[in-house]
Amino acid sequence: MLAVYSQCKQYDFDEIELFWQKFWDKNKTFCVQEDFSKEKYYVLDMFPYPSGAGLHIGHPEGYTASDILTRYKHAKGYNVLHPMGWDAFGLPAEQHAIKTGINPAINTANNIEIFKKQMKRIGFAIDWDREVNTTDPGYFKWTQWIFLQLFKHGLAYVDESPVWWCEELKSVLANEEVIGGRSERGDFPVIRKNLCQWILRITRYADKLLEGLFDIDWPDSTKRQQTAWIGKSEGANIRFKIDGYDEEICVYTTRPDTIFGATFLVIAPEHPLVEKIVAQKFVNDVKKYVEDSRKKSDLERTDLAKTKTGVQTGAYAINPANGERIEIWIADYVLVSYGSGAIMAVPGHDKRDYDFALNYGIAITQVISDVSGNNQLPYVGDGILVNSGEFNGISSEKAREKIISWLHAAKRADFAQNYKLRDWLFSRQRYWGEPIPIIWIKESDYQMALSNDKFYFKEFLPKEPVSYNKGGVPYCALPLCLDHLPLTLPPTDNYLPSTDGESPLVKIKSWVNVYVNIETGQIVSAEDFNEKNASFPWVLGRRETNTMPQWAGSCWYYLRYLSPHCETNIVDPKAINYWQTPDFYIGGAEHAVLHLLYARFWHRFLFDIGAINTGKEPFRRLFHQGIILGEDGTKMSKSRGNVINPDEIVKHYGADALRLYEMFLGPLDMMKPWSTKGIEGVSRFLKKVWNGYVDKNGNIKSFQNSVSDTCRTVINETIRKVGNDIEELKFNTAISQMMICLNSVQKAGGFDGASARNFLKILAPFAPHISEELWARIGNNGSIYNTDWPEYDDSKMIPTSQKIIVQVNGKMRAELVVSDINNMQADAIFELAMHDGNVQKYIFDKKIVKKIYIRGKIVNFVVE
RNA sequence: GCUCGAGUGGUGAAAUUGGUAAACACGCCAGACUUAGGAUCUGGUGCCUAACGGCUUGAGGGUUCGAGUCCCUCCUCGAGCACCA
Q1: Are A492 and A504 spatial neighbours (Cβ–Cβ below 8 Å)?
Q2: What is each CA distance from A676 to A342, A646, A657, A660, A768, in whole angstroms?
Q3: Does residue A1 carry a pLDDT above 60?
Q4: How far is the CA of A670 from the C1' of B77 (A)?
Q5: What average pLDDT does chain A have?
Q6: How many other C-beta atoms lie within 10 A of the C-beta of residue A537?
Q7: Which of A216, A267, A391, A557 is deepest in the core (most CB within 10 A)?
Q8: pLDDT for residue A285 is more than 50
């Protein structure tokens, strides 16, 4: 095969880049198969949502970084997988559909095409044969299957729960789409609405998700965020007797050491005991207070700046530690959803209880003494117990355990843990999402089916049926089976949710109402069903009309890449045996909690049920690229007019320059402003590279027979540093080093043959197009992608002579050039240094009190 | 309020992890080539000073022969959490 390349005489990046992009496509240069003779390396990007706006300048940042790693690891001999796909369900496509009446699938496909074209124009080393799309039925078939597994294992259930509803958008919104009580899109008010929802029991994995963070290589801040989100705390449940009642109030506390200072109890307005224990005298006040707090939004209730309000119940509890009779209050600063919805209030050592006690004139007792002697209240730290009976003088830490044990012996307390993590609200009242593969049938039909030996749907049934009540009639959830999947979205031209917060699918009666044969599994639209046959084993059912959230598809896409066309399993066992989980995962920090927590949950679940045989954690090494700001240093936005379009940059400077510049901007994980002026620098560098190889007529220059020693040192140092910097993702300094190298080579009259080849090899991951072109022009066949990473020669890097810095009292006074430095003794160095003219100026009339020599680096004379 | 992270030239930044602060690049200044330069090349460019020299990594203190780097106090910016008992 003859070397092929573009025909341009000057550096025409457009011609060169298009030529090589076509070459890669045609030769499937980046397509990989399992190869058990080679070590694998799996590079994963967070796949994009293909928005109508196209690629923005932030996308190529992460993709270039992962691409450099891909090409580098491949050169180092790994079998590298670098796939790409589309997280394509989501609200914008649906809103586009509402506006235009065009099926979101069409809009989505168009957007994907644009994204893909843009990405190909930047020249990423992606195996496009493995492209996945979460909205493809062949993909979401398996998303639905995973849901059914969760259902089967009792991790999916239904509950009536409050969701955000935006009247203006006529849509339910996810928590993350609500900012400060208003919709993220359009800034409209949102309200809470109770709807019947699917919920996943992520809380059952709380401990595992917490422990899993321990030994994975993730940014600390992300680990901390997940830890905080899971919010595990240790303490005790303590039961307080209510004076005059049989009932008790159970409180959760992390500070049992302060129990002697508990001067009142507070229960949440929604607490079940509210109705039972309120004294006649307070009934009206309590009613009003409970009513008012129900009307308050979450935002108002949790506003810290507000003074705490509450109302007395007239009932009293007995403090089990000291037998004191203490008031029971109702206040909305206590949340019914955490712990037991009731607290023991210790105003001496809790800021909130302190504020409340001050407001209502309740006794404040100090029971912890600050060891530093500061005894201002409220003191919330640990200390030494006082006013605490037999526990006086004990430290907080010891007292916590002792007091729980003491109360436990009296059957008043138990050790307990709590989590802030809530179960995952999984259903969305939207059209553009994966349909939840469930049919609701009457409980009586479900029971009858269960007792039938030929019950077709047994495969995915949970131990306890999932049921809910509608208009007094109980319904049970009947899961579809694998052969019913994928359950696709029915076509419609009305994508608007109903005003009462139900999915637009509700309106598609022919899809919703079905008859199910519970013996054969046959499902027929009620419209097409002959009513004469409407008897057992045919039962009337109603399809679940909620869809899944956008997070569902992104929870497992990294597994699908391994065998995207596998029809029998979520992932081909042979493929996952080889590829396992990603070795490197890069994406924005905005997904620190949600996507990354949900995906870890699903991965662990799939591992637990034996669907995959990988490690327990999906992403062992994670990195977040920093946001690229506009030239004015603020976030890019249309309204500010500071948006940089990558297409424009590619047009003016080429893809190689874009890639190089985004990496040269600064450290990968930092937020940094774009500068179009700045890209000129790397653009010039590329031209210099070109001119180092090609003459004015487009012919390859003849290289030198050899390069100078200094030059060879720089070249070796560059090979070493670029490799190390890539491993550490320090691409900015790697590029600097290549610039230094090129500058000194050109000063010294140019490359020799070996260094000309090596330089292209190390440049190739960063600027693959120009590297391919020059590689071919200097006479090589095939892609530079398939060459090895150059070795560097240590012996060529140690200069024969070396500079030693001479300091006097820590200030630099001279430079010594010393040959044969390794064999020189410290005394000889001191001798040399002292006789330096400039050093003499500072020491001749002084007394040297100390001499320091750091081998090969520095001499310091301390004088006085 | 709490928890992290960050503050280095006119700008983006670098610094072998305690050893010459400002590499590399942008910008700017001067020069060369040019009909021309917003192309290219060469040189200069932290601050003060006429110079010798002195000063300099947000501010102040400390440890050290030596601090951008370690410790303490404070200031500013960014991120996350925010009545979770």
Answers
A1: yes
A2: 58, 11, 11, 13, 21
A3: no
A4: 14
A5: 91
A6: 17
A7: A267
A8: yes
d(CA A618, CA A616): 7
b/e A538-552 (16+ beta carbons within 10 angstroms → b): bbbbbbbbbbbbbbb
For A335, counting Cβ atoms within 10 Å of its Cβ (0-12 exposed, 13-18 middle, 19+ buried), the class is middle
Q: Can you tell me the distance from the alpha carbon of A808 to that of A177, in angstroms, rounded to the nearest whole number?
A: 62
What element of type H or E holds A179? strand A178-179
Six-digit token pair at A60?
């190529």
Please enumerate in sequence order all residues whose Cβ is within 8 A of that of A743, keeping only pairs 6 or more positions apart, or say none: none
Q: Is beta strand A801-808 parallel, antiparallel or unpaired with respect to A182-183?
A: unpaired
User: Å between A119 CA and B42 C1'?
Assistant: 40
Which residue(s) pair with A697 in the sheet?
none
Q: A205-264, pLDDT tens digit by residue?
A: 999 999 999 989 999 999 999 999 999 999 999 999 999 999 999 999 999 999 999 999
- C-alpha distances in angstroms, A359 versus A89, A314, A341, A367, A545? 50, 17, 21, 21, 49
Q: Please, which residues have CB within 8 angstroms of residue A535's CB and are 6 or more apart in sequence? A: none
Neighbours of A710 (CB within 10 A): 12
Cα distance from N-terminal residue to C-terminal residue, chain A? 75
Considering all nucleic acid strands, name the nucleotide whose C1' atom is nearest to the C-alpha of residue A812. Answer: B20
The angle at the Cα of A205, spanning A201 to A210, to the nearest 5 degrees, equals 140
Q: Which nucleotide is nearest to A352 (CA to C1')?
A: B83
> What is the CB-side half-sphere exposure of residue A85 using CA atoms within 13 A?
25
Calpha distance A266→A326 (Å, rounded): 10
How far are the Cα atoms of A507, A576, A640, A643, A850 from residue A666, in angstroms, in the given order? 53, 36, 23, 19, 42
Contact, A732 vs A667, CB < 8 A?
yes
d(CA A93, CA A104): 5
For residue A166, what are its two tokens? 């935006």
Residue A816 confidence (pLDDT): 80
Point out the nucleotide closest to A626 (alpha carbon to C1′): B79
Nearest-angstrom CA–CA distance, A509 and A512: 5
Give the whole-angstrom CA distance, residue A697 versus residue A277. Answer: 96
Q: How far is the CA of A660 from the C1' of B29 (A)?
A: 29
The model's confidence at residue A304, banded by pLDDT at 50, 70 and 90, is: low
In angstroms, the Cα distances linking A365 to A311, A386, A395, A704, A716 are 21, 10, 17, 87, 72
Gyration radius of chain A over CA positions:
35
What is the DSSP secondary-structure string of A258-286?
A: GGGG--EEEE-TT-TTHHHH--GGGHHHH
% of chain A at pLDDT higher than 90? 69
* Locus of tokens 């927590």: A597
Three-state SS string across A371-424, please? CCCCCCCCCCCCCEECCCHHHCCCEHHHHHHHHHHHHHHCCCEEEEEECCCCCE
How many whole angstroms separate alpha carbon A206 and alpha carbon A392?
36
Q: Which nucleotide C1' is nearest A266 CA?
A: B85
Q: What share of chain A is helix, strand, coil (3-state, %, to 5)?
A: 40, 20, 40
Phi first, then psi, for residue A305 (nearest 5°) are -70, -20
What is the mean predicted confidence (pLDDT) over A379-403? Answer: 93
Whether the bond between A50 and the residue before it is cis, its omega within 30 degrees of 0, is no
Structure tokens at A366: 């100090």
Distance CA A559, CA A581 (A): 8
Predicted TM-score (pTM) of the model is: 0.94
Contact assessment for residue A428 and residue A548, using Cβ atoms and an 8 Å cutoff: yes
Mean pLDDT of the region A796-824: 76
Q: Burial of A12 by CB count in 10 Å (0-12 exposed, 13-18 middle, 19+ buried)?
A: middle
Question: Which positions on strand B lie below 7 Å from a protein C-beta?
Answer: 3-5, 11-15, 19-21, 23-27, 39-42, 55, 65-67, 78-85
